[in-house]
Input
Amino acid sequence: MKTSNSLSTILDVTCIVVLLLAVLLIGMETRTESVIVQASTAEAAALAVEQVGGTVTHELRTIRAVGAELSPTQRANLPAVLSEARVYDNASVSHSDALTEPMSIDTRVEQE
Output
């Protein structure tokens, strides 16, 4: 009887540990990063993102790229799908307030 209770407790603890690990692994894969994927064409970049299961968020044809949401695993798998792909973190950009007043064309010419 005591052995049966011990075995039951061990099985209960094992099930809980397995469930917790599954939840952690699922949570890790649902985390995505906003990136820019560049290739020979925006279409090639978009196709590669879709093939690894990522989501295209923007087309950036001027720079032959797309904005995308990729999990760490999807990002790591991208070179296997398209070896030429270049991946950049999609970070916010802001300007510096170095100029205290707007410059006119005349002012810029005089400073040169």
In short: The first strand starts at residue 33 and ends at 38. Confidence is low (pLDDT under 50) at residues 107-112. The two ends are 93 Å apart (CA to CA).
